Structure to design on (304 residues):
């Protein structure tokens, strides 16, 4: 079986950046793409440097895929189902298919938890229209002075609402189910900020008159944008299978050069504890790719 220099798992901004770097280092790489990058959800990113008028997430990914392919990066539309370390190399499984690599970079990202009960088609349309948003760091500016809701409660919901309060004063924290679960400190913070609180449950989502509307314990409400603050699922399962350490929140633990506790296994992007930003993921990928190149060179000089 042929052994690749590096296999990259995940083809969002982190995985594609790493592919571009590694391919330009003249390394034999393979990139597995299961097609679920969160970047594909972005209607238009306005804080990604170099695009003053913004850029659609899918367009950005397509440009990066084209750039990686230009330098010979092999991208395959497959889902990786298992990963293990075998001696000095790794075995990567895609169902019954097996591949070998001297190093592996995990750029598997996270999955946002959606509001319960919302239909997929409605959710996707609402996201495309900016009626449902998941990242106030990315697009808080776009809801400036608009009517906004945060679906969540507790410390996480309070923190999200506090962040968005810097963009608008017309802000409501809606509990996803039943009464709010708020500490005295959270209640004080919300009160001081003038953030309204409404009990759930939430349901009956629909787009009405250009807004996202849903039922609450206090009747039907409509907003210009809604931010679900419901947490996310970190896709670190492959790292765990391979024996890598993860944090209490399941993020992959890496060193300053993005290497995990398993030598030769790297991680970059949202699956690593960090800012969950495209620019940050791309920066991590550049560091990881360069470290991979240097480690491989230490084992056998890279020469033309």
């Amino acid at each position: 079986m042929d052994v690749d220099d590096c296999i990259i798992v995940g083809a969002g901004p982190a995985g594609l950046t790493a592919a571009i770097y590694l391919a330009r280092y003249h390394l034999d790489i393979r990139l597995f793409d299961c097609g679920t990058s969160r970047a594909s959800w972005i209607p238009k990113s306005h804080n990604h440097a170099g695009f003053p008028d913004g850029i659609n997430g899918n367009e950005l990914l397509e440009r990066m895929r084209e750039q990686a392919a230009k330098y010979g990066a092999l991208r395959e539309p497959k889902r990786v189902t298992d990963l293990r370390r075998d001696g000095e190399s790794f075995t990567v499984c895609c169902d019954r298919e097996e591949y070998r690599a001297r190093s592996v970079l995990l750029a598997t990202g996270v999955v946002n938890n959606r509001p319960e009960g919302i239909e997929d088609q409605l959710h996707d349309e609402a996201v495309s229209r900016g009626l449902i948003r998941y990242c106030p760091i990315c697009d808080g500016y776009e809801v400036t002075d608009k009517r906004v809701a945060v679906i969540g409660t507790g410390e996480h919901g309070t923190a999200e609402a506090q962040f968005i309060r810097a963009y608008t004063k017309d802000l409501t924290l809606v509990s996803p189910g039943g009464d709010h679960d708020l500490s005295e400190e959270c209640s004080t913070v919300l009160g001081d900020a003038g953030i309204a609180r409404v009990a759930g449950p939430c349901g009956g989502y629909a787009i009405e008159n250009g807004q996202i509307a849903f039922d609450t314990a206090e009747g039907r409400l409509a907003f210009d944008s809604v931010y679900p603050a419901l947490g996310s699922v970190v896709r670190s399962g492959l790292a765990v299978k391979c024996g890598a350490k993860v944090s209490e929140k399941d993020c992959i633990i890496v060193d300053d050069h993005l290497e995990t506790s398993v030598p030769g296994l790297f991680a970059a992007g949202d699956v690593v504890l960090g800012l969950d930003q495209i620019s940050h993921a791309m920066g991590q990928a550049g560091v990881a790719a360069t470290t991979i190149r240097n480690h491989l060179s230490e084992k056998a000089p890279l020469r033309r």
Observations:
- The mean pLDDT is 96.
